[in-house]
Amino acid sequence: MAAYLSSWFSAAPAPSPARDEKPEVTIGTIAPPPEDEEDGSATETEDDTPPAFPALNSAQRASQPAPRVLTDTQRMPPPPNPGLAVRTPGLAPPSRGGGLALPPSTSKPIRAREKVALAPGRGPLDWANLKASGQDLRGVDTLLRVTPSMLKAHNKKDDAWTAIYGRVYNMTAYMPFHPGGERELMRVAGRDGTKLFAVTHAWVNADFMLDQCMVGFLVSEPAS
Fold first, then answer.
1. Domain count along the chain
2. In a domain, 211, yes or no
3. DSSP code of 53?
4. Within 13 Å of residue 166, how many CA atoms lie on the same side as its CB?
5. Helices in the chain by DSSP H: which ranges?
6. Residue 159 lies in domain
7. Euclidean distance between CA atoms 162 and 192, whole angstroms
8. CB of 94 within 8 A of CB of 83?
9. 3-class SS shares of the chain: helix, strand, coil, % to 5
10. Cα 105 vs. chain centroid, distance in angstroms?
11. Would 160 be classed as within a structural domain?
12. Is residue 56 classed as helix, strand or coil in its secondary structure?
């Protein structure tokens, strides 16, 4: 009987764990798969150098010819300058045409305008104030039709008329205010001064300057 019981206990299954007890689970360490060097994965060393384009082993790079490097003897020489070859220190090079000299038609000396020292109170502002003062600067009561013979009679310093662009002015009062002096105005006293005026100072508005001195218009001599 004792032998029977001993064999029965030895063959009995192991007791099941209690409900509150959790089975012990052994967690192993899972090793990551080895990286393949050819799968394009990142490496430990960072390199920001851009890749060569085209690739070094590409067909495009193989078909391109190597750049040609010119030597000093193969490069284009500077343009010839005959003036430098015969230039003497301290002397200007000989003229061979094509230089920077002015053409003969424009290289003539131009006469500079001469200005005279005006008396005190004879400046441009003083003349403007005189025109605005209401003083009679014409010497006539109404505008006249002035013929060349009538104009010729007013050729004195104290009675000087001139015509500019068809208008006749009594420039007697303007004599002391002229920057070029009275002598220049007397050159056109008693005659048509349009040509001399245009050559000397065409940019000046004569009508604005002498508007209060206008005496009439220049007309032709009446037919006899």
1. 1
2. yes
3. S
4. 2
5. 2-11, 59-63, 82-85, 124-132, 148-152, 182-186, 194-201, 206-209
6. 138-218
7. 6
8. yes
9. 25, 10, 65
10. 30
11. yes
12. coil
The tens digit of pLDDT for each residue in 69-85 reads 777 777 777 777 655 55
Query: Is the pTM of the predicted complex or chain greater than 0.85?
Result: no
Among residues 223, 218, 224, the alpha carbon closest in space to that of 193 is found at 218
pLDDT for 157-183, tens place per residue? 999 999 999 999 999 999 999 988 899
Residue type, 88: T
**Amino acid at residue number 210:** L
**What is the pLDDT of the chain when averaged over all its residues?**
76
Which string of b and e fits 115-125 if b means at least 16 CB within 10 Å?
A: eeebeeeeeee
Position 11 in a domain: no
Residue 154 token pair: 């007013």
Secondary structure E strands in the chain: 144-146, 155-156, 159-164, 167-170, 191-192, 214-218
Six-digit token string for 112 = 């500079």
| Beta-ladder partners of 168 | 163, 216
The Cα 100–Cα 157 span in angstroms is 48
Residue 40 within a domain: no
Neighbours of 190 (CB within 10 A): 19
DSSP bridge partners of 159:
156
Residue 193's pLDDT is 94
pLDDT digits (tens, 9 = 90+) for 197-219: 999 888 899 999 999 999 999 99
Quick one: which of 186, 196, 144 has its CA closest to 165?
196
Query: What is the torsion angle, in degrees rounded to the nearest 10, for the CA atoms of residue 91, residue 95, residue 99 and residue 102?
Result: 100
CATH of the domain at 194: 3.10.120.10
